[in-house]
Amino acid sequence: MSVRASEFLILALLAGCASPRCPDLPGGPRYCLQDTTAVAPYSALQDIRIRRGDLDERLIGQLEVDAAGMRLAGLTPMGQRVLEAQFDNKEATASSLAGDRFDARALLSLVQLAVWPAASVRAGLGHDWELEDTPALRRLLRDGNSVMEVERQGEPPQYQYLDIRLPDAGLSLTVRAIKEED
C-alpha cells in the first residue's frame, strides 16, 4: 500500500473532529475513552483489513495497553508507519502521514468498544445507546437499530479474531492476531 493510498484510507475512515477524549465514530456514536485500568495490561500485533465501498486495505497494528494508557501504531504491510494514536487516560492524541485532516483517535475508541468490559463501554456512551453483549457478539443499538456489531473469538481482551461492522458508515474491519515468534 502506498503512502497516498494510506492517506486516502485514513481520511475515508476517520473524518471529523471531536474532543480529545470523545472522538466521533464513522456512522456511529461519540464515544468517550475510558481508563485503561479497566483491562489487564497487554500488547497485540494485529493484521487489520479495512473495507469501505471500493476500498479494501490492510494495516499491521501494534497495540499496547497498560495502566498509563494505550498506544496504537499502524503500519503498511511493508512496515511504513502511517499513523500513531495515544491515550494517556486523560487525553487522546494522534498523528499520521495524512496530517490533521482526520481523527485517528477513533481507532482507539473502536478498540475499546470491541474489547473493553461492558460496564466501561456503557460508561463511555451517551444515554441514547444500548449495548448487547455476549462472549461472541457485541452490538451497539440506537432506537433498536444496530449501529455497530463486533463478532469475537478468543479471550478478552486479546481476542484472536474481531469482525467490526458499522453498517451506516459502510465500514468493516477484520482484525486477526499475529503470533509473534520467539
Fold blueprint:
Blueprint lengths: L2 H11 L28 E11 L2 E12 L2 E7 L5 E7 L4 E5 L8 H11 L2 H7 L4 E5 L3 E6 L2 E10 L4 E8 L4 E7 L5
Architecture overview:
The protein has 182 residues and is of the alpha+beta class. Residues 3-18 have low confidence and may be disordered. It has one domain (3-177): outer membrane lipoprotein receptor (LolB), chain A (Clam), CATH 2.50.20. It starts with a helix and ends in a 5-residue tail after the last strand. 16% of the residues lie in helices and 43% in strands. The longest helix is centred in the N-terminal third of the chain and has 11 residues, at 3-13. It has 3 helices and 10 strands. A 10-stranded antiparallel sheet has the order 5-4-3-2-1-10-9-8-7-6.
Radius of gyration: 15 Å
Relative strand content: 35-45%
Text of the CATH class: Mainly Beta
Terminal CA distance reads 28 Å
Series of secondary-structure elements, N-terminal to C-terminal: HEEEEEHHEEEEE
Give the CATH topology.
outer membrane lipoprotein receptor (LolB), chain A
Walk across the major sheet and give the strand order: 5-4-3-2-1-10-9-8-7-6
When the domains are counted, the total is 1
Silhouette:
globular
**What level of helicity do the residues show?**
10-25%
What would you say the CATH architecture is? Clam
Query: With helices defined by DSSP (H or I, 4 residues minimum), what is the helix count?
Result: 3
Largest sheet: 10 strands, antiparallel
Strands, count: 10
Keywords:
182 residues, alpha+beta, outer membrane lipoprotein receptor (LolB), chain A, 10-stranded antiparallel β-sheet, 10 strands, 16% helix, disordered N terminus
